[in-house]
Write a structure and sequence with these properties.
It contains 9 helices and 22 strands. By secondary structure, the protein is an alpha/beta fold. The chain folds into 2 domains: 172 residues, FAD/NAD(P)-binding domain (3-Layer(bba) Sandwich); 137 residues, 3-Layer(bba) Sandwich (FAD/NAD(P)-binding domain), CATH 3.50.50. Strands 5-2-1-9-19 form a 5-stranded parallel beta sheet, with helices on one face. A 4-stranded parallel beta sheet has the order 13-12-11-17. Strands 6-7-8 form a 3-stranded antiparallel beta sheet. The longest helix is centred in the last third of the chain and has 19 residues.
């Protein structure tokens, strides 16, 4: 009898996991469930925002997944019973032998009063499209880019947004009449990598982008176009926020977040197993000691795949999760740098920085193309 693996979420984590498990198609039947019909890389939202790519051009359709043992279902997950490994969707009920939850992080814009009414974001496709259309008629003024809470996806992305916004305003002849100010509650852009933080802070200064660390915007007042900090107010013409993140509702309702930090799914950091037998959580939804980023979701998928293989072979010692991955950083002008992070395999995290270059941009393209080929061929 084949074991039934049910993977919830076909983002970075779910796609990578289903690809690895497909090699075990003789032993496994894999059901991969996602509410969407297609995958979009997080970084493609920057391309949508600045009009470099159309949304339809950056979609990879799940109907193009043809992998042994893998069946994709476009359904919305409405309930998860981790004790029984039972999943309910808007169309079906699934009984799993092994359940992997890779549902990512949802956004909670309402957590910042005023943001829904008067703020913009580029962390969702709809948000990137809306901001793109607003920028098209922007006539210059003060722009605030604020990280509204931690953790959030892809720690470099707010700074990438600022660099690319600078280029965009230069191209439109609006930079001289505009200011850009990035505000973050964190002490530095990438705390694990001082070299990367230094390069980002220097890059901001070189472009006359103001940067304020260790401050958090608590609310915005769209009527008066002011952002409120604990003891201060800042005026703005355009407010761009990195929204607060949270687990999807269906995960919160499942009881899986018990014991996890700030409402994320508690996992064993070596195996990504949850306290429920045969249930794993990986990627942004899991409370693993790594940043929220696709590259780490992908590494987590390899660990979960090895854990599942070890279960099948009754070999109890898969390699522990290394929390390693490469993060690319757009610096504008077609130059891309990267951080080669390894959070968990050594005695302390390491994250050397590779400075921005045109070769880095090609490297990023190759990275995306290899994932598309691996997941969708
Ligand atoms: C602007 C931006 C730039 C980024 N740049 C990078 C980068 O350069 N490098 C990098 O590594 N990461 C980057 N990221 C982060 C990266 O996109 C995420 O960290 C990554 O996608 C997380 O993978 P995941 O598998 O955990 O979740 P996701 O990829 O978010 O996948 C979760 C899936 O679950 C599905 N889902 C959710 N709820 C349900 C439900 N109830 N029913 C059915 N399906 C559901 C969703 O449709 C989604 O497809 C960026 C993100 C943004 C926003």
């Amino acid at each position: 009898m084949k074991k039934h693996v049910v993977i919830l979420g076909a983002g970075f984590g779910g796609l990578e996991l289903s690809t690895h498990l497909s090699a075990l198609a003789d032993d496994l039947h894999i059901t991969l469930i996602d509410q969407s019909d297609s995958f979009i890389f997080g970084f493609s939202k920057l391309d949508i925002l600045f009009g470099k790519q159309k949304t339809d051009d950056v979609r990879a359709y799940y109907r193009d997944i043809h992998k042994d043992g893998v069946e994709f279902r476009q359904e919305h997950v409405t309930a998860i019973d981790p004790a029984r490994k039972r999943v309910t969707t808007d169309r079906n009920t699934y009984e799993a032998d092994i359940l992997a939850i890779a549902l990512g992080a949802d956004y909670d814009p309402a957590a910042t009063p005023g943001f829904v009414q008067g703020g913009y974001e580029y962390y969702s496709v709809a948000g990137a499209e809306r901001l793109r259309d607003t920028l098209a008629t922007f006539a210059g003024g003060s722009i605030l880019i604020a990280i509204l809470s931690v953790p959030f996806k892809c720690p470099p992305a707010p700074y990438e947004g600022a660099f690319l916004l600078h280029d965009y305003l230069v191209d439109r002849g609006l930079r001289a009449t505009s200011s850009i100010h990035v505000i973050s509650p964190m002490e530095s852009p990438i705390p694990v990598s001082p070299d990367t933080s230094e390069a980002i802070v220097r890059g901001l200064a070189e472009r006359d982008i103001e940067y304020t660390p260790r401050r958090r915007i608590r609310s915005i007042d769209p009527a008066h176009q002011t952002a409120r900090l604990k003891d201060d107010e800042l005026p703005y013409d355009l407010f761009i926020g990195i929204p607060a993140h949270r687990v999807p509702d269906v995960v919160e309702a499942s009881g899986l977040t018990k014991g996890g930090t700030d409402g994320w799914i508690a996992v064993d950091r070596r195996t990504l197993a949850t306290p429920f037998e045969g249930v794993y959580a990986l990627g942004d939804v899991a409370d693993a000691p790594v940043p929220r980023a696709g590259t780490f979701a992908e590494a987590a998928a390899r660990t979960v795949a090895e854990g599942i293989m070890a279960r099948l072979r009754d070999d109890g010692s898969p390699k522990p999760y290394d929390g390693a991955g490469v993060c690319f950083i757009e610096f504008g002008g077609g130059l891309v740098g990267k951080v080669d992070a390894d959070f968990l395999s050594g005695s302390s995290p390491k994250a050397p920085f590779v400075p921005p270059s045109a070769e880095g941009a090609k490297d990023k393209e190759r990275y995306a193309a290899s994932r598309r080929a691996r997941w969708f061929s």
